Amino acid sequence: MQAAQGYGRRSHALRVRRHPRRGGPRAAAPIFEHLVATYASETNKTASMWRAVPDDLLDFRPHERTNTIRAILVHQILSERRFFAQFVGTEEPPASELLPPGDHPPVQAYLERYVALAKRRLPQLAEASKEWWLEERPFFGGLERQRIWTFWRRVLHTCHHRTQVQTWLRLAGRQVPAIYGPSGDVSWDEADPTYSVEAADRGA
In this structure, are residues 177 and 7 in contact, taking their beta carbons and an 8 Å threshold? Predict the structure, then answer.
């Protein structure tokens, strides 16, 4: 098992700065600071997972009825743009400019586009007011949802696709980076996962 240093958990050559003290944007309304921080943090975690994918595994899929890893990366970039442009209402680049050029771009090309798009959104989220976050806007199926509801729905959607990539890596016999805690391949001295009743009882 590898230590986390330099692998996934702390290694972010491309990353979104999530704390104002480290160059990240500060939310105009302090009550929404956690939204800005969470979006940056979850983007960095997804970038860590993508970085673990070797180029020769991009077209891998564990079953004929599942997407390839490349298709998941493409969907993530396209669908996140749609969520934010259509449902949240942030300014986004034209969809035709989202994907890297070529028929078979490397992982790094997808990663650079994904992180760049997140960096562009973050100041818009930070500048938003309470009234902006709570405004209702159209959603799928003719529904109306507050921007803040759609934002969290998007974060969960991204976590779902990140877990797909994580699972595909494991099924392909490749190493899986740590995300919220240690993985089967990566740990660190301070890791304290909860696999026992005693650990769950801490703080009681």
Answer: yes
